UniProtKB/TrEMBL annotation, chain A:
Entry protein name: Pyridine nucleotide-disulfide oxidoreductase
One MF annotation (Gene Ontology) recorded for this entry: oxidoreductase activity, acting on NAD(P)H
Lineage, opening ranks: Bacteria, Bacillati, Actinomycetota, Actinomycetes, Kitasatosporales
Top-level division of the source organism's lineage: Bacteria
Record InterPro entries: FAD-oxidoreductase/Apoptosis (IPR050446), FAD/NAD-bd_sf (IPR036188), FAD/NAD-binding_dom (IPR023753), FAD/NAD-linked_Rdtase_dimer_sf (IPR016156), Reductase_C (IPR028202)
Spans traversing the lipid bilayer: none
Keyword tags: FAD, Flavoprotein, Oxidoreductase
TrEMBL record, chain B:
InterPro entries according to UniProt: Cyt_P450 (IPR001128), Cyt_P450_B (IPR002397), Cyt_P450_CS (IPR017972), Cyt_P450_sf (IPR036396)
Protein name as annotated: Cytochrome P450
Pfam families: p450 (PF00067)
Keywords from the UniProt entry: Heme, Iron, Metal-binding, Monooxygenase, Oxidoreductase
Segments crossing the lipid bilayer: none
Gene Ontology molecular-function annotations: heme binding; iron ion binding; monooxygenase activity; oxidoreductase activity, acting on paired donors, with incorporation or reduction of molecular oxygen
Record CDD domains: CYP164-like
Classification lineage: Bacteria, Bacillati, Actinomycetota, Actinomycetes, Kitasatosporales
EC number(s) per entry: 1.14.-.-
Length: 464, 412
């Protein structure tokens, strides 16, 4: 083992602290125990609940098919930890290796894993955000409250933002027979993640299912009634929609404020880490005792030119947590890189959408199989002459093949025939992603440049 | 040496234990010999080819038509019927499979298979009750054979009074899939052709009736239900019904028979299953790995030149994917030649994979689980009378023709 036996000691009697007790936190804890970590493990989470699963919150839970309190994550093994739930971490002292908690407590660590994820971006006008009937959807509590108000049969629901979550919410509402308006700044739903060519199909799906979809507009103001309940929304095109439930679905913000001033490379874009999940400090030097995993992390990926990727993907959180846990307990030579190929799924309007790779890097798309008008197809994204991503609508079984093309940096457009190639699949067309300099609120993969710490963005001045 | 290996696999002398030959075959992962097919035997190669859109299931894409394929014993006498979705590519395959799935599985009929549980159990109990002489039981003729045919009858909605006729057609067709080398082949072919024609006419009549007076059975729903894909034509319903019958028959017979044979060779597992019927779930999965009823998939072809492990397989070539060899690939499964229902990870190829993966899998699993757990529970001290038992000719749908066993008695 290690020359000085310090790794053995860490495994035997070390102290590992995990901040963020959700998907990544839990899977990391399980992996640590599986790898024989016998020391003390502390799980710090600001939510009062044991780790639960978020994907069902916008699907089964909103349909009333499962209740929010039944979404607990399955435990893969016992973790034997001290759980500090309902208490946020408020600060980090890197030199003293200490995490400060909101209740004044401090917890010391030998290794720290940060998995604080993201939260829903709130409606920017605070007074409007506080109106009754205005929701965001990220947590169990959010889902429970939203489901309750949907069950009361609102006359109309307005969803602001047609990314994956917003679209899934609209789908659930339609399935419950509730009138829905969706407002989207871009020209179609899902364009941030999948581009305009596929976004058009998503728009068709929404309209076919009776969604009042309004693209190319922004909601400028939410209006309440005298009792403080939302009653209408005003749009940038001058129109007004009356709605008694409004869901703000404008993407996510990284939970990194608690690290402000700590010296860690943490900021609006998340926490930069190396491929081995070790966090960078603000000087761009990699730490050896602080690890990052899940939605809050941004890490370089060899398949995508070593750009830093921020992935809000369930599978990424699991894989990165496992790698972080493994590396925490390993000598440098035994460490593994986190080279998970991004993969995402969504179900909406009766369609199973899955993607692999980084479609949003694509400049062109080829509809390799099936047809957009039938809402069943496989789209392959190309970037600089190679395959960079793929998406399927109800054609999940082919995705594995295109993932192999991505992993082997196969040339784009693919030069071979396939089954189910239609006339529209003869030529690639521009994938039609919005100008990357215009912020969108839907992409679940964000390329955030080459530098481990983007100084302009990561220096968030301490606010408390 | 390897030159003869395909012939050895086909050779009846190796039917009881082809696994050493498969091991040999895996040493040449892309095996090709003169005009023969390209034969794939490694787990990961097979798995990825089953998901490869450059591979077709439609024989019209073959360069040389598949004439008298010695292993593709699936009768080609379907000439009168349009090809079933087993032999089609998307989008036709997907459309027909979706329409067939509507009355069968989720999302539209998530409870169909589950709701057959009671009925399946009754059929199993009836067959075991019917065993009169515990000193000599032929598990194939007395149990494995009649069971799946009855199940398909109930699924399709064949009236009870017609089940006997249905059984005799199915038996004749099954026998034709397994030609006895000594028999008069012309005579066989005629008998089988007649059985097919009669079965087809019978089903056509039934479809006609169900169109007028639909019931809750699958045939009614296939002939009448109009989803977004429309309604099947009578010919489509006919070829689909024939597919369900043929694909779901011999396969299930073999799974149950191989299952009992394997359990009798592994008495400790049999004893555990007797005490705990829930063990049937991993037992059946491990069986599908260890003794898969469909040993190889012989009908795939390439739409373009493709490269596998550095070997170029030219466009229009015939591919054989040897599922049974992949299932014992040591790169994928630890200690692959051991029957071990406790191995945590049994992602076998027994049902194929990709878009053609077995349509009837949920039903087949339930049938085999019920059959094996009930046999284990009710047969007192069962034992093999012949090991190995006599096998059928067929090398693709491989399994015992008879399984002579004895027991001390039948528990209630
Ligand atoms: C409605 C919804 C639907 C989704 N659907 C899909 C889907 O279909 N497919 C898919 O791939 N992904 C989906 N996702 C994304 C997926 O759920 C996330 O990728 C996953 O939850 C990330 O896990 P995580 O542990 O990194 O972060 P999170 O789950 O965000 O967990 C972070 C935890 O840390 C806590 N925390 C934050 N700050 C502190 C602090 N200072 N101190 C203590 N604790 C703190 C947070 O409260 C939270 O409990 C969905 C997400 C949502 C919200
Ligand atoms: C143990 C039992 C069974 C086994 C081992 C089995 C195995 C298989 C395999 C390997 C395939 C893939 C063929 C290919 O890729 O070309 C397949 C397809 C199929 N099976 Fe089964 N099967 C079984 C039972 C059943 C039953 C009970 C039914 C019907 C109720 C059924 C219906 C089908 C159909 C319709 C297909 C074609 C699917 C398609 O092409 O999309 N099978 N089966």
């Amino acid at each position: 083992m290690s020359v000085d036996g310090s790794l053995d000691r860490l495994k035997r009697e070390g102290r590992i602290v995990v901040v963020g007790a959700s998907l990544a936190g839990l899977r990391a804890a399980e992996t640590l125990r599986e790898k024989g970590f016998a020391g003390s493990l502390t799980m710090i989470g600001d939510e009062p609940y044991e780790p639960y699963d978020r994907p069902p919150l916008s699907k089964q839970v909103l349909l009333g098919r499962a209740t929010a309190d039944r979404t607990g994550l399955p435990r893969l093994r016992a973790v034997d930890a001290q759980w500090r739930l309902g208490v946020p971490a408020t600060g980090l002292d890197m030199a003293a290796r200490r995490v400060r908690l909101a209740d004044g407590d401090e917890v010391e660590y030998d290794r720290l894993l940060i998995a604080t994820g993201v939260r829903a971006r709130p409606w920017p006008q605070e007074d409007e955000a506080e109106l009754d009937g205005v929701f965001v959807l990220r947590t169990r509590d959010d889902a429970e409250a939203l489901e309750r108000s949907l069950a009361q049969g609102p006359r109309r629901v307005l969803v602001i933002g047609a990314g994956f979550t917003g679209s899934e919410i609209a789908s659930a509402c339609r399935e419950r027979g509730i009138a829905v308006t969706v407002a989207e700044r871009a020209d179609a739903p899902l364009v941030g993640a999948l581009g305009g060519v596929v976004g058009e199909v998503a728009a068709e799906l929404q309209r076919k299912h009776g969604v009042d979809l309004r693209c190319g507009v922004m909601v400028t103001r939410l209006e309440g009634d005298s009792a403080g309940h939302v009653r209408a929304a005003h749009f940038s095109d001058g129109s007004t929609v009356e709605a008694d439930v409004v869901i703000v679905s404008l993407g996510a913000q990284r939970n990194t404020e608690w690290l402000a001033g700590s010296g860690l490379g943490a900021g609006l874009r998340g926490i930069a880490c190396d491929a081995g999940c070790r966090a960078f400090d603000i000087r761009g030097i990699v730490t050896d005792d602080i690890y990052v995993a899940g939605d809050v992390a941004r890490s370089p990926h060899p398949l995508f030119g070593y750009q830093f990727l921020s992935l809000e993907h369930w599978g990424n959180a699991v894989a990165q947590a496992e790698t972080a846990a493994h590396n925490m307990l390993s000598e440098s030579a035994d460490r593994r890189p986190h080279i998970w190929v991004p993969a995402f799924w969504s179900s909406q309007f009766g369609v199973n959408i899955k993607s692999v790779g980084v479609p949003s890097m694509g400049t062109e798309i080829l509809i390799a199989q099936g047809s957009r008008s039938e809402h069943r197809f496989t789209g392959v994204y190309g970037y600089q002459g190679r395959v960079i991503g793929a998406v399927t609508f109800d054609q999940t079984k082919w995705l594995q093949f295109y993932q192999q093309l991505i992993e082997t940096t196969a040339p784009f457009p693919p030069a071979f025939p396939t089954v189910d190639r239609r006339p529209e699949g003869q030529q690639p067309i521009p994938a039609d992603f919005p100008d990357p300099s215009v912020p969108t609120h839907g992409p679940t993969v964000t390329l955030s440049g080459y530098a481990p710490d983007d100084r302009r963005l990561t220096f968030t001045p301490a606010r408390h | 040496m390897t030159e003869a290996i395909l012939r050895q696999i086909i050779n009846y002398a190796h039917r009881a234990d082809p696994y050493p030959l498969y091991e040999e075959l895996r040493k040449t992962p892309v095996y090709h010999d003169a005009d023969g097919p390209f034969v794939l035997s490694r787990y990961y190669d097979i798995q990825s080819l089953l998901h490869d859109p450059r591979i077709s299931s439609d024989a019209r894409n073959l360069k040389t038509p598949a004439t008298a394929n010695p292993l593709a014993a699936e009768a080609d006498d379907e000439t009168a019927l349009p090809p079933s979705f087993l032999r089609l590519d998307p989008p036709e395959h997907d459309r027909l499979r979706r329409m067939t799935n509507r009355p069968f599985g989720p999302p539209h009929s998530p409870r169909r298979v589950h709701e057959m549980h009671g009925e399946l159990k009754d059929i199993v109990s009836g067959l075991i009750d019917g065993i009169d002489n515990p000193d000599r039981i032929d598990l194939v003729d007395q149990f494995s054979y009649p069971f799946p045919v009855t199940v398909i009858c109930r699924l399709l909605g064949v009236p009870r009074e017609d089940e006997a006729r249905f059984h005799s057609w199915a038996d004749t067709i099954a026998a034709s899939l397994d030609p006895d080398p000594g028999a008069d082949t012309d005579e066989r072919a005629k008998v089988s052709h007649n059985a097919r024609t009669e079965l087809g006419m019978y089903l056509a009549g039934l479809i006609e009736e169900r169109r007028k007076k639909p019931g809750a059975d699958m045939l009614s729903q296939l002939s009448t239900a109009g989803g977004p894909d429309g309604v099947m034509t009578t010919m489509e319903v006919l070829s689909t019904a024939a597919l369900l019958l043929i694909a779901g028959h011999e396969t299930t017979v073999n799974l149950i028979t191989n299952g009992m044979l394997t359990l009798l060779r592994n008495p400790d597992v049999l004893e555990r299953l007797r005490k705990d019927p829930n063990l049937a779930v991993p037992v059946v999965e491990e069986l599908l790995r260890f003794e898969p009823p469909v040993q190889l998939v012989p009908q795939r072809t390439t739409l373009t030149d493709i490269e596998v492990r550095g070997v170029t397989i030219p466009k229009g070539a015939s591919l054989w994917l040897v599922l049974a060899a992949g299932n014992r690939d040591p790169d994928r499964f630890e200690d692959p030649d051991r029957f071990d229902p406790d191995r945590g990870d049994i992602q076998h190829l027994g049902f194929g994979s990709g878009i053609h993966s077995c349509f009837g899998a949920p039903l087949a699993r339930l049938e085999a689980q019920l059959a094996l757990s009930e046999l284990a529970r009710r047969l007192e001290n069962p034992r093999l009378l012949e090991d190995p038992p006599p096998y059928r000719q067929n090398a693709v749908l491989r399994g015992p023709r008879h399984l002579p066993i004895a027991c001390d008695g039948i528990r209630p």
